[in-house]
Amino acid sequence: MTRPKFHEDPILPVHAYLDGELDPANALAVEKRMSAYPLLAAECERIDALQRRIRTALPREAPPPGLRRRIETAVDLARPRPTFAQRQYSWRALAASIALTAMVAGSTTSMLFGPQFASDTMSDSTRVGVVDAHIRALMAPTPIDVASSDQHTVKPWFNGRIPQAPRVVNLAKADFPLVGGRIDVVGETPVPTLVYGHRKHLISVTGVPDAKHADTAPVLSTANGYNVYRWTEGGVAYWVVSDLAPGELDTLVTLFRTTPPEQ
Questions:
Q1: 257: buried, middle or exposed (CB in 10 Å: 19+, 13-18, 0-12)?
Q2: Distance, CA of 70 to CA of 79 (rounded, Å)
């Protein structure tokens, strides 16, 4: 995706930003541009308010029954059919590729990784899932499902939506105010995500059930340009994702772990 061309029309990237059409890099560029030009930020707020009024006054209609099936049928009919020889070659090549991959992967992983490989793979898969969820939230019109800085509003919102409500703490005094929460799907599991703010950055704190592993200390890693902290506590694997510098993100992690929830 090309970068926004502010010199041609500074408003067009704002529309794309609000519509969730920009990748994280371009979205960040638009945010920086708006922070430098108050008039552009005001225009963004005006467009956003207009879009909300339109969505309220003109709710989106459901597609007519059978539309998906008709589209899939039309696409399938337009797709050229492979010849018998091409199908035979394709299946043979695929079978050979699968067999070779399985043989190499089986022998290599058993030699290099040993019994910890499955666990590490699961951890890496979860990390990809939470980072992808964070990116999708940044690209969406709003990164949260429930907007509130009150933990007594956010925590009950999860009741009935997921099996267990998350641990929610108030970190506003440390300049990490609670913005709200949302439900992400990691793998096939719906999990709670709390969203905190710090200056112009958003921080996702996701709790993934993990009753199989003992408590662990926070570990820092990176994925897709984002800093990621992970630790396990009380049967929950916590994942913290943000573009904040590691030092600032470490401060939030420490505060989140040591601050008791208000009663």
A1: middle
A2: 14
Q: Indicate the domain borders of the chain.
A: 12-57, 115-258
* 115-258 classified as CATH 3.30.200.100: yes
| Residue 9 DSSP one-character state | -
Over residues 112-171, the pLDDT tens digits come to 333 333 344 457 788 888 999 999 999 888 899 999 999 999 999 999 889 888 999 999
Q: Is 74 helix (H, G, I), strand (E, B) or coil?
A: helix
DSSP string over 199-248: TTEEEEEEEEE-TTS--EEEEEEEETTEEEEEEEETTEEEEEEESS-HHH
pLDDT per residue over 157-213, tens digit each?
Answer: 999 889 888 999 999 999 999 999 999 998 888 999 999 999 889 999 999 998 888
Tokens of 55: 């969505």
Task: Give 239's strand partners.
Answer: 206, 230
Instruction: Count Cβ atoms below 10 Å from residue 181 Cβ, excluding itself.
Output: 26
